[in-house]
User: Which sequence fits this backbone?
C-alpha cells in the first residue's frame, strides 16, 4: 500500500523549536528537497521519508530528541538507550513501566504515567510545562509510546479513547490518522486509553530486531500514520490494492456485504465520505510518483483514472494548492 503523505502543518510545526533556538534550517530544507513554498501552502503534503529525514536531521542539529519543545533537552541516543533497557522485559507491562522510569530519571523530562481504570489502562502525559504551541511534542510522545508498545508485542494496541488537554487544533482532521479512536479535547489531561489485556502480552522483539527498528525510529513511528480499525482505513486498504481500477461506491459496498446507504452513513459518522477517501488516496499516489519522476504527468493521470491530464491538473491543485508540474519542480 502506498504510504500516506504528511500534512505540511507537521513540517512547519517541527521547525518551531529550531526557530526558537535560532537555528537556520534553510540549508537543511534545501538538502532534503523541501521548498519553503511547499511549507507555506496549508494544503500541501510531503512524503513520509522526507519527514523522517527532517526529524532525524533536526535531532542532530539541535542536539535534542525533544526538538526544542521540552523544559530540558533529551540528548540524541536517549530513546535508543531506553529501548535497550526494556527489550529483555518479559511483558509489555514491565517494558512500559521500565521505559517510563528511565525517562523519569532526567530532570525536566515530560512526565508520563500508567494508571489502571478497572479493565482499562490509561497512559497520561503532563504537558503543562512544555513549550509546545502547536502541540507537536505532546502528539509525538503519545504516538511514539503507543506505536512502540505495539511494536514490542507484534500487534497493534487498539485505542479506545484519546484525550487532549487543549482545544481541538486547526489540524484536528489529521488526528484520525495519528490515533484512530474516539477523540476528546479540552480535557484535564492528554492521554490514551486501552485494554489492560495487552499488558500481560510477552515481548516478541529482541536485540536483533531492535537494531533494525532503531535505524529509523522513533522518527519512523511519527511518519507512518496509524491504519487502525476504522471503516475509512479498511476502505483505503481495499482501494489501494489496485489503483488502476477504481471501483465505485456500489461495488465497494457489495464487496463489504452492506448496502450503499449503510456504507455512506458509516463513513459520515467517521467524518468522511467515499469521494474524500478516494481523493486522498489519489493525492498520495500522485505525490509518490511526482517525487520519484518514474512516470510522466500523463501516465500518472491515467493511473489515477483521469480521462485527460487537464482534469488531473485541476484536481491536484485543489488537493494540494500546487499544480503537478510545480510540485515536481520543487521536489527535484
Assistant:
Amino acid at each position: 500500500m502506498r504510504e500516506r503523505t504528511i500534512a505540511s502543518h507537521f513540517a512547519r510545526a517541527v521547525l518551531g523549536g529550531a526557530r526558537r533556538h535560532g537555528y537556520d534550517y534553510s540549508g537543511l530544507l534545501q538538502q532534503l528537497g523541501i521548498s519553503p513554498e511547499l511549507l507555506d501552502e496549508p494544503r500541501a503534503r510531503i512524503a513520509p521519508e522526507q519527514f523522517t529525514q527532517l526529524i532525524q536531521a533536526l535531532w542532530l542539529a539541535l542536539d535534542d530528541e525533544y526538538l526544542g519543545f521540552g523544559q530540558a533537552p533529551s540528548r540524541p541516543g536517549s530513546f535508543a538507550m531506553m529501548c535497550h533497557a526494556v527489550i529483555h522485559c518479559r511483558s509489555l507491562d514491565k517494558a512500559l513501566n521500565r521505559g517510563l522510569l528511565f525517562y523519569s530519571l532526567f530532570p525536566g523530562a515530560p512526565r508520563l504515567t500508567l494508571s489502571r481504570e478497572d479493565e482499562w489502562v490509561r497512559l497520561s502525559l503532563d504537558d503543562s510545562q512544555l513549550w509546545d504551541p502547536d502541540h507537536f511534542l505532546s502528539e509525538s510522545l503519545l504516538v511514539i509510546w503507543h506505536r512502540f508498545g505495539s511494536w514490542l508485542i507484534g500487534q497493534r494496541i487498539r485505542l479506545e479513547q484519546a484525550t487532549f488537554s487543549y482545544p481541538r487544533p486547526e489540524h484536528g482532521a489529521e488526528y484520525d490518522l495519528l490515533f484512530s479512536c474516539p477523540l476528546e479535547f479540552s480535557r484535564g489531561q492528554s492521554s490514551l486509553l486501552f485494554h489492560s489485556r495487552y499488558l500481560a502480552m510477552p515481548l516478541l522483539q529482541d536485540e536483533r530486531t531492535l537494531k533494525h527498528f532503531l535505524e529509523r525510529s522513533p522518527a519512523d513511528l511519527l511518519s507512518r500514520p496509524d491504519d487502525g480499525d476504522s471503516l475509512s482505513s479498511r476502505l483505503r486498504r481495499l482501494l489501494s490494492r489496485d489503483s488502476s481500477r477504481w471501483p465505485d461506491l456500489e461495488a465497494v459496498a457489495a464487496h463489504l456485504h452492506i448496502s450503499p446507504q449503510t456504507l455512506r452513513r458509516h463513513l459520515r459518522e467517521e467524518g468522511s465520505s467515499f469521494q474524500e477517501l478516494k481523493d486522498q488516496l489519489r493525492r498520495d499516489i500522485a505525490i509518490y510518483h511526482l517525487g520519484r519522476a518514474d512516470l510522466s504527468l500523463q501516465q500518472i493521470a491515467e493511473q489515477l483514472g483521469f480521462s485527460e491530464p487537464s482534469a488531473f491538473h485541476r484536481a491536484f491543485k485543489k488537493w494540494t494548492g500546487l499544480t503537478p508540474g510545480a510540485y515536481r519542480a520543487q521536489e527535484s
